[in-house]
Write a structure and sequence with these properties.
By secondary structure, the protein is mainly alpha-helical. The protein has one domain: MetI-like fold. The chain has helices at residues 2-11, 21-57, 61-64, 80-87, 90-120, 127-136, 142-156, 163-166, 174-184, 189-197, 202-213, 215-231, 234-239, 249-263, 268-289, 291-300. Helix 5 crosses helix 9 (174-184), helix 5 crosses helix 12 (215-231) and helix 12 (215-231) packs across helix 16 (291-300). The longest helix is centred in the first third of the chain and has 37 residues, at 21-57.
């Protein structure tokens, strides 16, 4: 009797609860399609200003003001680029921006990583409270700190030099400290404990263990800082002033716009757009070649709160 019941149980069809597999696949396909459509529309909104800039940089002056606007210039005027780059010494401005941008990026990486290590890997009294104070400094815009900083740097005799744009990066950046702290907290403490047993100091652990493991996050910090310095206009305007030979590329663009506007020269906007396209090209190329490291670093810095 038991044998017959067992055979009947084995032959009984299994009823799968829930939706059928084809309906689940259809739902998944429709969801993915809708998601891709939304992302495509959003990406188009972000790319449209870039496409418009490139289109304007190749237009003649009458084409800029045509209604409705056209995205494909006819005829294409390639001379806008050499004329724009030779109107002001953009080569010198390019080197000036690199001169302080690279040093500021190095300082931001080293100082922020060291501060983040202390907030994430070492236990000491008041650590969390001080970290909260550091995060609060992110609420202060540059316009609030501009006058006190100018007075301090003026007393030090740094106005008219790149030191006000470089030295603050070596004191730590709150946003980068937060990012690196989140990343360092994902690294197992067992690695640090094993190194301490072997006699390694905290600086030895930091440089030999933590820093090599944090390359993606450090690359993100370096890229963010370099982009901030490359696009910064307010800082050089305040600290460099009228020293035109030390202008970065952002102030060079403003100088070019002011000269073209005062002289009422034709092809003002095409030349400005051509110079702007050349200005953003290094940042676009840098992100293009480092996007895998960039995305990996952003993902890893938000793993643990």
């Amino acid at each position: 009797m038991n044998t017959n019941l067992g055979r009947q149980a084995q032959l009984r069809p299994v009823v799968v609860s829930g939706t059928q597999p084809w309906t689940r696949r259809l739902y998944h396909g429709l969801t993915q399609t809708a998601l891709y459509v939304v992302l495509a529309v959003l990406s188009l909104c972000f790319v449209l200003p870039f496409v418009w800039m490139l289109s304007t940089s190749l237009k003649t002056d009458p084409q800029v003001y045509t209604v409705p606007p056209t995205f494909i210039p006819n005829p294409i005027r390639w001379l806008n680029y050499p004329e724009a780059l030779t109107y002001v010494p953009f080569g010198r401005y390019f080197l000036n921006t690199l001169k302080y941008g690279v040093f500021a990026s190095i300082g931001a990486v080293l100082s922020s990583a060291l501060c983040a290590y202390g907030f994430s890997r070492i236990r000491w009294r008041g650590r969390d409270a001080l970290f909260f104070v550091v995060l609060m400094t992110m609420m202060l815009p540059f316009q609030v700190r501009m006058i006190p900083l100018y007075l301090i740097f003026n007393k030090l005799g740094w106005i008219g030099t790149y030191l006000p744009l470089i030295v603050p990066a070596y004191t730590g950046v709150a946003y980068f400290i937060f990012l690196l702290r989140q990343f360092f907290m994902t690294i197992p403490m067992d690695l640090s404990d094993a190194a301490r047993i072997d006699g390694a100091s905290e600086l030895g652990i930091f440089f030999r263990i933590i820093m090599p493991l944090a390359k993606p996050a450090l690359a993100v910090v370096a890229l963010f800082e370099f982009m901030n310095d490359w696009n910064d206009y307010m800082g050089p305007l305040v600290y460099i002033g009228n020293h035109t030979e030390k202008y970065p590329i952002a102030m060079g663009l403003e100088q070019m716009r002011s000269h073209l506007n005062q002289a009422n020269i034709e092809l003002m906007w095409p030349r400005l757009m051509a110079a702007s396209a050349v200005m953003i090209l290094p940042v676009v190329l840098m992100f293009f070649f480092t996007q895998r490291t960039f995305v990996e670093g952003i993902a890893l810095t938000g793993v643990k709160g």
